[in-house]
Design a protein that fits this description.
Elements: E1 2-7, H1 18-25, E2 29-33, H2 43-50, E3 55-57, H3 59-64, H4 67-73, E4 77-82, H5 90-101, E5 105-109, H6 114-117, E6 132-134, H7 145-155, E7 160-164, H8 174-188, E8 198-203, E9 210-215, H9 216-219, E10 229-233, H10 239-245
Parallel strand pairs: 1-4, 1-5, 2-3, 2-4, 6-7
Antiparallel strand pairs: 7-10, 8-9, 8-10
């Protein structure tokens, strides 16, 4: 039978494409991946629109017990829903490859991703360098990868998109991310992310968004509201990009 891997967009239940909705309606099982991103609506709203019961797929199910999904797709129609676009996380590529190896038909239905939704700020997408993320620090785990990526992208005059950690009980804010980067800067003192570094704080891209452009120190005091948040650290700016960023100051 078929495994339908379907991106369902960034905001609410209505962001699914018509093609994606038609596929969901004919499926026997519908799984929703719940740990790489979140919509701004409840699972019940999805079920009401799709007319299907949704099975929540947490990290353990997707990464360690994906056979539970693939076994069903051997003789049933199965939907695997992903917030944003289908291949926004490497683990989804793994499921795709494993299904193909088992001879399961796979149909991919794409949708909007945060990696392209950032275009609304006015920066040229092809001038973004490596994307990075900031996890919540834990005991004996305080990675500085985001700082290093920002530094490397700046050296190449490229923009940096910084994705922020998502936990079951909390979501990292722009403010928390700035504080983490300030802490790394105070340790490293390489002037990669200072109080005067110009950044863009974004919240709820693809939906009821909020975007602000200013110094890191100024945005530290800004309330960006509900999740999900991300940060952009611009590289060298074209004059059109400069004009676009003025909208968000």
């Amino acid at each position: 039978m078929t495994l339908y891997m379907i991106g369902i967009g960034l905001d609410n239940a209505e962001d699914i494409t018509y093609k994606g909705l038609r596929a969901v309606e004919k499926c026997d099982y519908v799984f929703l991946e719940t740990y790489t991103s979140k919509l701004h609506c409840s699972v019940k709203e999805l079920e009401n629109l799709y007319g299907k019961e949704i099975i929540l797929a947490d990290r353990d199910l997707v990464e360690k017990n994906a056979e539970e999904i693939l076994d069903k797709a051997k003789d049933k129609e199965v939907a695997f829903l992903v917030v944003g676009d289908v291949f926004g996380a490497t683990t989804h590529t793994d499921i795709y490859l494993r299904a193909r190896k088992r001879g399961i038909g796979v149909s991919v239905i794409n949708n909007a991703s945060v990696l392209t939704a950032i275009g609304i700020v006015g920066l040229e997408l092809y001038k973004f360098g490596k994307t990075t993320s900031i996890p919540y620090p834990e005991e004996n785990f305080k990675p500085e990868t985001a700082y290093d990526v920002i530094k490397k992208n700046k050296e190449c005059n490229l923009h940096t998109q910084v994705l922020l950690d998502i936990k079951p009980d909390r979501n990292m804010t722009v403010n928390e991310a700035i504080e983490i980067l300030f802490e790394i800067e105070s340790k490293r003192k390489e002037k990669v992310f200072t109080k005067n570094t110009m950044i863009i704080g974004c919240a709820r891209l693809g939906g009821n968004y909020k975007i602000k452009y200013g110094t890191a120190n100024k945005l530290l005091k800004e309330d960006f509201g509900e999740p999900l948040h991300c940060i952009i650290v611009p590289g060298e700016l074209h004059f059109i990009e400069e004009e676009a960023l003025e909208m968000w100051q």
